[in-house]
């Protein structure tokens, strides 16, 4: 049942039999058959099926953690080598604003795969996309591209973040449009996918910001706003805690989002990479 459990993890992460089939180089019917055999062996269904999309039901969510543990344990056995064999290296690209997500996932990953060395490659999403496509890195934690996902690559969503305006806590005014027009603007760099979304948003709203500085580091942008250097529009997690010197303002009906996720090749992936992806997707 190990093969069926691995396929189950792919379907759970990717949300469809078709995407999982592409990842493991099988037909969709073969993947469906593996899931059916697993469900028959367990005695209950694992997914709610709605058209092409599937989602874990209550039983599936309960089985997920156990399946990850079993697959990880088998991988540990298969990776047992003598000390003279070179260690496994996993090349992980990440944007700067996703370091927190990656750090939390690494805590679980290091416990399950202590023999795997992680090499972290920081860059902007556009260059990370190219690096995954050319095989320079194995996976990238990045912003979903504004264009379609290349056919040779696979996308696994992790989190959806709402854009908000941030301003110094002592700055008067609570109308985000007025603040963009009247205050120095700390711009999220336009060469990045996330910054390009801000630029398109301002154009749609027919707003011309008073650009003061432009950079790709969201933490540094927040620090500049806290220092009183202007206002900014950045993606913010719903449960994010801002520094005491920074407040956020919603964009109302004009709100827009960015999606962070994992970009990989569509070829079959090793268990340690699947485990890292599952840790992030099901965090």
UniProtKB/TrEMBL annotation:
Keywords: DNA-binding, Transcription, Transcription regulation
Gene Ontology CC terms, in alphabetical order: protein-DNA complex
UniProt superkingdom: Bacteria
InterPro entries in the cross-refs: LysR_HTH_N, LysR_subst-bd, WH-like_DNA-bd_sf, WH_DNA-bd_sf
GO molecular function, one term: DNA binding
Pfam families reported for this sequence: HTH_1, LysR_substrate
Domain HTH lysR-type: 1-57
UniProt entry tagged with the keyword Transcription regulation: yes
Keyword check for DNA-binding: yes
Family: Belongs to the LysR transcriptional regulatory family.
Record PANTHER family: HTH-TYPE TRANSCRIPTIONAL REGULATOR CYNR, TRANSCRIPTIONAL DUAL REGULATOR HCAR-RELATED
Protein's name according to its UniProt entry: LysR family transcriptional regulator
């Amino acid at each position: 049942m190990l093969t069926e459990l691995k396929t189950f993890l792919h379907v759970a992460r990717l949300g469809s039999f078709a995407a999982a089939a592409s990842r493991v180089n099988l037909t969709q019917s073969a993947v469906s058959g593996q899931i059916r055999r697993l469900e028959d062996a367990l005695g209950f269904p694992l997914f709610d099926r709605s058209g092409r999309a599937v989602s874990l039901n209550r039983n599936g969510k309960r089985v997920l953690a156990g399946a990850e543990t079993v697959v990880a344990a088998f991988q540990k056995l298969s990776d047992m080598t003598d000390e003279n064999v070179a260690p496994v290296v996993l090349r992980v690209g990440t944007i700067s604003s996703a370091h927190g997500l990656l750090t939390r996932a690494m805590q679980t990953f290091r416990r399950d795969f202590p023999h795997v060395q992680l090499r972290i490659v920081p860059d902007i999403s556009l260059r990370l996309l190219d690096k995954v496509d050319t095989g320079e890195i194995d996976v990238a934690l990045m912003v979903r591209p504004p264009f379609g996902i290349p056919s040779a690559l696979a996308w696994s969503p992790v989190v959806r973040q709402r854009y908000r305006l941030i301003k110094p806590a002592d700055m008067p005014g609570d109308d985000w449009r007025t603040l963009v027009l009247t205050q120095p603007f700390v711009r999220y760099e336009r060469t990045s996918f996330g910054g390009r979304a801000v630029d398109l948003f301002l154009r749609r709203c027919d707003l011309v910001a008073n650009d003061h500085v432009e950079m790709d580091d969201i933490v540094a942008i927040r620090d500049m706003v806290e220092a009183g250097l202007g206002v900014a529009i950045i993606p913010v997690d719903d449960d994010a805690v801002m520094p005491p010197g920074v407040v956020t303002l919603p964009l109302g009906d004009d709100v827009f989002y960015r999606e962070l996720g994992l970009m990989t090749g569509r070829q079959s992936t090793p268990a340690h990479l699947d485990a890292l992806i599952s840790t992030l997707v099901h965090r």
